[in-house]
């Protein structure tokens, strides 16, 4: 693996999330091969790679949706490898999934209430809901509207808001700009910046490589399920191999 960790923005020594030597299979097909990454406290880390590289598989393994065959996933010093997704969420691991995955036949308010069903979130549900509405005024305006009738950008706001209702300390974003208009993409990335400024650590999988590397303190490149390069976001953004492979430059 090529490393650029001597560059500014390299991963700090104190991780909130540490993944070591992770292997994941779908039947006989290997999706992740000896993957090791770290996300530091209060840090944005980007995962980039082509379609099929294993990015979503990595997020699903951390979230407890897929069970790895080997390796360890440690969150705040606790081994969470193979825990059910409900348990990982209740520890403070949040996820904004690819495709948003809201409940289309429920209202905006009902979707948010689902996000607050975690034991860790129930006591502060009303206050958190007010904070979500303050962050996304359009959700407040449409609180009684069926989620399936929202625009794509509004649905992404709802997906983020629902995640925040669970009181996460760490959020994984899987392709948050997918299918959105450029102006809405900018809004989504501004939201990610704001959440990070509040102290939330973030793992970002994003098709817009240039934007994600500009935002990230640290980044990893996945190819065929393996980490082949890592370093600061700025270093990878200026690396000729990354520019040719993912930016068309």
Descriptive keywords:
249 residues; Rossmann fold; 2 domains; 7-stranded mixed beta sheet; 4-stranded antiparallel beta sheet
Overview in brief:
The chain is of the alpha/beta class.
Topology record:
Elements: E1 2-4, E2 15-26, E3 29-40, E4 44-48, H1 55-63, E5 70-75, E6 78-79, H2 85-90, E7 93-96, H3 108-115, H4 125-135, H5 137-141, H6 152-165, E8 170-174, H7 182-197, E9 201-205, H8 209-215, E10 218-223, E11 226-232, H9 233-238, H10 240-246
Parallel strand pairs: 1-11, 4-9, 4-10, 7-8, 8-9
Antiparallel strand pairs: 2-3, 2-5, 5-6, 10-11
Task: Please give a structural write-up.
By secondary structure, the protein is an alpha/beta fold. The protein has two domains: 1-92 and 171-185 and 197-249, P-loop containing nucleotide triphosphate hydrolases (Rossmann fold); 99-168, no CATH class. Helix content is 36%, strand content 27%. The protein is built from ten helices and eleven strands. The strands form two sheets. A seven-stranded mixed β-sheet has the order 1-11-10-4-9-8-7, sandwiched between helices. Strands 3-2-5-6 form a four-stranded antiparallel β-sheet, covered by helices on one side. A hairpin with a 2-residue loop joins strand 10 (218-223) and strand 11. Helix 3 (108-115) packs parallel to helix 6. The longest helix is centred in the C-terminal third of the chain and has 16 residues, at 182-197. It is globular, with a radius of gyration of 18 Å. It starts with a strand and ends with a helix. Mean pLDDT is 92; it is low at 4-12.
